[in-house]
Amino acid sequence: MQSITSTILNTTLLSPDLFVLDISFPNPVQAGQFMMIKVPDNSKILPRPISIFNYDPKTQRLSLLIRSRGQGTELLSKMSLGQKIDVFGSLGKGFDTNISDKNIILMGGGEGIAPMLLTSELLKKNNDVSVFAGFRHQIEASTLDYFDSDLDIQYTAQDHSENCARGLITDLLDDIDEPDYIYTCGPIPMMKAIYTKVLHKKWNTKVFISMESHMACGVGACVGCTVKDCHNHSIRVCTAGPIFLAEEIFNV
Ligand SMILES: Cc1cc2nc3c(=O)[nH]c(=O)nc-3n(C[C@H](O)[C@H](O)[C@H](O)COP(=O)(O)OP(=O)(O)OC[C@H]3O[C@@H](n4cnc5c(N)ncnc54)[C@H](O)[C@@H]3O)c2cc1C
Ligand code: FES
Predict the structure, then answer these.
(1) Going by DSSP bridges, is the β-strand pair 103-109/181-185 parallel, antiparallel, or unpaired?
(2) Which H, E and C letters describe 157-188, residue by residue?
(3) Where would you tag: which of 1, 61, 124, 245 has the fewest CB atoms within 10 A of its CB?
(4) Number of neighbouring beta carbons within 10 Å of residue 155
(5) Is 73 in the pocket of ligand 1 (CB under 6 A)?
(6) What is the pLDDT of residue 160?
């Protein structure tokens, strides 16, 4: 796979450190996959892994939802219309979207909501899809404006207003019927708490998680992204994942 030089089509600031970057991209992608994005600074050699937020094959517009965490993502937030950027992808194993007649909950914490947009678009045609999100700050709930408003969308925020519940994303599982599937992305403690709650409820729900780890190559060559699974076996997140069954990773 070759890296592609994309053009910046738009940058939208959603909160002081969360933004959507739209770039041109000619190739098909899968929901839950990620791109390696070269930071526009020659001192930053390693590309940054970023999930696919949305993709429109007709306009060849690929969207990324990015949190400015360090220098690399900060530089990406400053890119403007027409600038060029080198990208590599799409990479990894995505979420299974060839599913019908299931009750599916997509759960994202913070920027972990990113892989859920394209996933919801593909699943909603043949399934009953809910989107549950958890944010630190209410302002970040504007990410949910990108989702189809016909979906069941609920969220919590820690600095809540009257529009949403205060608390943790796991609270949203309290008063619902057992779903067939949960797809989740966000901090590892959050995904583990979701899986633990499913087990405590004695649900048979299959929980899929999107793992994060530090990545250098994105294609299985550097072993930089290796994590241990529940049997203490080493697995490469970039090629074996980033999507895994929760029971393969967590010892709960
Ligand atoms: C498969 C995958 C998909 C991702 N998708 C998204 C996404 O859709 N949106 C998004 O905002 N971020 C995403 N990330 C995280 C993103 O790659 C990091 O935030 C980014 O690389 C940080 O680069 P930086 O130069 O800004 O920060 P650095 O200066 O490199 O680091 C700043 C801080 O971020 C932490 N950090 C760096 N890399 C990671 C990482 N991979 N995971 C967790 N913390 C990290 C560092 O420990 C440090 O505390 C994803 C990561 C992976 C592995
Ligand atoms: S990032 Fe290099 S092996 Fe996974």
Answers:
(1) parallel
(2) ECCCCCCCEECCHHHHHCCCCCCCEEEEECCH
(3) 1
(4) 22
(5) yes
(6) 64
Would the CB of 118 count as within 6 Å of ligand 1? no
The CB of 239 under 6 Å from ligand 1? The reply is no
**pLDDT level of residue 164 (50, 70, 90 thresholds):** low
Give the max Cα distance, the chain. 52
Q: What is the pTM of this model?
A: 0.95
Mean pLDDT of 28-55: 92
User: Going along the chain, which residue ranges are E strands?
Assistant: 4-15, 18-24, 34-37, 48-51, 54-56, 61-67, 84-91, 103-109, 128-135, 152-157, 165-166, 181-185, 206-210, 226-228, 234-236, 243-245
Query: Does 158 have pLDDT greater than 90?
Result: no
Q: Which structural domains are found in the chain, ordered by start? A: 4-91 (2.40.30.10), 103-210 (3.40.50.80)
Per-residue burial over 101-129, b = 16 or more CB atoms within 10 Å of its CB, e = otherwise: eebbbbbbbbbbbbbbbbbbbbbbeebeb
CB 146 within 8 A of CB 171: no
pLDDT digits (tens, 9 = 90+) for 91-114: 999 999 999 999 999 999 999 999
Rounded Cα distance, 22 and 231, in Å? 39
